[in-house]
Specification:
By secondary structure, the protein is α+β, with helices and mostly antiparallel strands. The chain has a single domain, classed as q2cbj1_9rhob like domain (Jelly Rolls), CATH 2.60.120.620. 19% of the residues lie in helices and 30% in strands. It is globular. It starts with 10 loop residues before the first strand and ends with a strand.
């Protein structure tokens, strides 16, 4: 009999949504409030220090609906308590210019972390997720095991994963901005 102690699903869904209005809000926000967060390295900005409720703006109604719908599905796949109803607790936007990236971190205070790639092209830096047991597995004789997963991204991808999972972004190698919206998903 085989038992599995740690099997962590990562949710990837490409959302059918028009992002033009979202991009306009993001650009306006970053022009008016050029704030930076310590996890954003290089030519980068974050609305995190300004507001963590950007997802509640009317312009994000459709996106919020799609994120919650996907969070409900992932909630079940990940095996969280079905008696709890997932909801977005925090949301913010990040902009990464050429050479910028997000430093490794995690969202341990929330069951699910999420990121939506609003503006993205190949070579803007994929998402990296780290095996939480990488220190322990490093000395095991495993074939084809990697301590981190580089998740290839496409524009309009929504990625959901456990909040405790360390993650970061690759370096944006293009002269255009990568724009993302991040979410902390808790429950009612």
């Amino acid at each position: 009999m085989q038992n599995t102690l740690i099997d962590v699903p990562i949710w990837v869904s490409n959302l059918d949504i028009d992002t033009k209005e979202i991009i306009d809000v993001a650009k306006d926000l970053f022009i008016k409030h050029p704030a930076k967060h310590e996890l954003e390295i290089g030519d980068a900005q974050s609305s995190y220090s300004l507001t963590t409720e950007i997802g509640s703006y009317a312009e994000f109604d459709k996106l919020r609906e799609l994120v919650v719908r996907n969070a409900k599905e992932y909630w079940g796949v990940y095996g969280l308590d079905a008696r709890k109803e997932p909801e977005i607790h925090d949301s913010w936007m990040n902009r990464h210019g050429k050479g910028a990236f997000t430093f490794p971190h995690f969202h341990a205070q929330t069951p699910i972390a999420g990121v939506f790639y609003i503006q993205f092209k190949e070579d803007m830096g994929n998402l990296f997720l780290q095996d939480p047991l990488h220190y322990h597995k490093a000395n095991e004789p495993r074939m084809n095991w990697e301590s981190e997963l580089e998740l290839p991204i496409q524009e309009k991808d929504l990625i959901l994963f456990p909040g405790w999972m360390q993650h970061w972004t690759g370096v944006n190698r293009l002269d255009e901005d990568r724009i993302i919206m991040s979410f902390n998903i808790g429950y009612k």
